[in-house]
């Protein structure tokens, strides 16, 4: 996904002297790297350390950043990777419609041998490795390694503990408790939910509501094409009707249709909304920036959107593949994994010593429980190409009232079915 913090990490690193065109041997001393994690996110912090360790262990080699953002990479990757401008290594969204589609198009390097030889398969482990492997159709879960995650992520409930405590409200561990808390805040004239409808958050919220009644078979039919998908079944219908009811009750604003993920995060971090339902990728930033109130997290009841994190992918046309592989290795090393976890991320291969921060320890433990309980349901935009934009647009129409709940489901169903031919479905 989604989902990671979806802003560009900009770093000013000096390019080694002598670097020139792609035919110039000097290029062998530069690793071109793209990623879109914020500098104060857990991944941004950990990968900055990985860059330092990489340059320390590769004398004369420099890491060169090009500033990118999630939305930009999402829309332009196929074109860029099919050109001479491809980086050596980049972070890319996982799933059939993204990494799977690029692997099917022959734009990514097969990393299967390296995954076994360097032990990445053992470090990533069962569960998170589903989104690293793709078959000849580009469907995740089996086949060759076309990407490597080094963290995990999932959607959870962030809540303003100070505001909850002031009203005697307990941690929202069930949907009923969450709904009751939202009703209490709405009755006081406080819009409880921070939501961003112009990007992924609102569509993920709709999916979360569906997941309260979903099981593995439902998820696999939707995500992995194992059977028919009915967008008007009880699961989807309950989700869209609940979303509409939350709108009517004032649990989220109609104005949220025009807000981006960043606006949502600021709305929660600044204390304007006491609840945010979004990804673990926000944890590190909130931990470093929120000072005016106490906040905490609760696992979403039932299944939840989540998986191994975004992938390191090596473009087929990368000029310095060996350097790219060495960098992936470092991001999976214990020092970097421990730093990622201790900075508020969900690490895949940390050391034995537990996190000292209780909140971070809980964040990681909740993920392990979700994974062990087979409760990770991937992300809603993965099944077909372009579904991200289609979902954002459809849910915006629901928020503004342009479409009714079941008209939104029809729009999603039509897009899904029309675009299945573009993937393994």
Written overview of the protein:
By secondary structure, the protein is of the alpha+beta class. The protein has two domains: 166 residues, D-Maltodextrin-Binding Protein, domain 2, CATH 3.40.190; 198 residues, Periplasmic binding protein-like II (D-Maltodextrin-Binding Protein, domain 2), CATH 3.40.190. It has 17 helices and 13 strands. The strands form three sheets. Strands 7, 8, 9, 10, 11 and 13 form a six-stranded mixed beta sheet that branches. The protein has a five-stranded mixed beta sheet with strand order 2-1-3-12-6. The chain has a two-stranded antiparallel ribbon with strand order 4-5. Strand 1, helix 1 and strand 2 form a beta-alpha-beta unit. Helix 10 packs across helix 17. It is globular, with a radius of gyration of 21 Å. It starts with 29 loop residues before the first strand and ends in a 6-residue tail after the last helix. 53% of the residues are buried. The N terminus is likely disordered.
